[in-house]
Amino acid sequence: MTGPVVTNTLAKPPDGGWGWVIVFGSFMVHILADGLTYSWGIFQVALVKDFQCGEGPASWIISILVGVTLCSGPLTSALVNRYNCRTVTIAGALLASAGLAVSSLAQNLLTLYISVGLVTGLGLGLMYLPAIVSVTCYFEKYRSMATGIAVCGSGFGMFLMSPLLGFLINRLEWRKTILITGGMMLSCVGFGALFRPLETTVEDVEKGSELKPLEAKTKEEHQLNGQPPQISLNGKTPTSPTSNGTSDGDSPTQNGPKRPHSIHGAQGILDNVATPTISDKARLALSQPQLQQVPEPPRKSAFGSGIMYRKDVLYGGSLANLQHHNRSNSHVDNRKMSHHGSRHHMTHGEEKPLMRNRRKSSRLDDRPRFCGIPCAQETADTLQEMLDCSLFLEPVFILYVISNFFTSIGFNVPYVYIVKLASDRGVDEDSANLLLSVVGLANTFGKAFLGYVADKPWVNRLYMYNISLTVCGLSCIMCIACSTFTTFAIVAAIFGLSCGAYVGLTAVVLVDLLGLDRLTNAFGLLLLFQGFASFIGPPITGGLYDYFQSFNHGFIFSGLMVCISGLMLFAIPSIQRLLERRSAKVGATTDDTTATTPIANSNS
Question: Where is the composition biased (Polar residues) (predicted)?
Fold first, then answer.
């Protein structure tokens, strides 16, 4: 009778129950957070009039807000891993609400750069990721539908918020309107409170651990060989000691044996137990195997201190068809595969080496560090995973990052300036405000449709993503040819339908290209580049307007950026085939070398 495996097992998604309440909470958070962000163009018109400034300086407010929201993704992930979705969302709602309330007193643009851009942007960043993660933790079979409903709140928020903000600004001016908006944002405290942590059950402890099959298999092999079973601690099975007192595997260090590099392999951490050397464990297993029985740790919430250890936590698509979509994407370098293990079903012995195991200590010098800064273990694990730059060795990922950078430069321009552009072309102000509602409504249908089609096994999701981005860019350019509300509404609908791919399919395509095991790393780096591009996109278009007194140049530039970002990704299949041929040549050379080595040895 073997003892329990030392692991903090993550709870199995129930696919329903309280999960639907969380879907509702996430939907409402998206309505308020994204509704404000994507409807900011209405505030933009009022701010330019009130401060008598150019479009360029005023556009830095929304640029900083979006940039900070995206760039805070890795930090938010670390906080979610250290605490939980509920706590982080509530903190973000309080911060965003406070930033908007202070903004109502602003007397210059610099104050708004800080209060709206930095403070509210960080608050929205703390709300955005937990609103997604909280849903994926509760759903597996119905994950695609649940996340689809939640993110549709973004488009629905635009549909509701743009006419509401326009009405309030016309009646109350922008200062009172932004104060009211801050009060509305405060309601996200209640919606975030709905993100109840998913508790681990006894069944999860018995069946959910990935280590148990490995441990059972190892023990069975030893029994067949007439050897006593060896005990696993912290996910490591000790091997026979060598003459120098160490095992044939990883050598222990002063901090204990090595552990996987991927944060997804950190579920077996037992920080409060001093780790003996492998030779000690082997000797103890032979003499007193009962003493190696480690008591089962207390069960705790999967949301708190460890939810980001799930490798699929950022994946919003259906897991049922995941294997089919990845079957034809074997471009990952075999050398990388041998290091990282299977792209979709990694075992603990195959995962990337993580930081060395550390015992929790009150001493500051003994705490885990990230870039030299002492922090909690969960924080260090998450940041190290999400900001691991070794992924830039993948040519496909580099191309995808460049594409997303170009997309983010032009993506936000229609949201910020379409109201002003329509007003300059003779459309009345109330009708111009409704254009953002058209974009939001079309965006809602676009996300739902693209999400549904993307789950079909016969769909090439990369091509669908590329085509959608290309159409999105073309619709941005077409805006300069519009002169009536009807033409603007048609182009706005096309833009809204197509731009849903950028938000809804980004993580899905990443998994198709790089594998589920590398999603957390890729998504973290991608958020940074999206944030950097968002800082400069609207100000470029605003600056061009201030110089030429026309939006034509800015909309053409932004549309071209989005078009190029979609077209360049059509080169990915060719790059994949090139990598496969190169990998095949390397493998053939290795086989030839291995085959000729015994012959050379026998001749000698």
Answer: 224-256
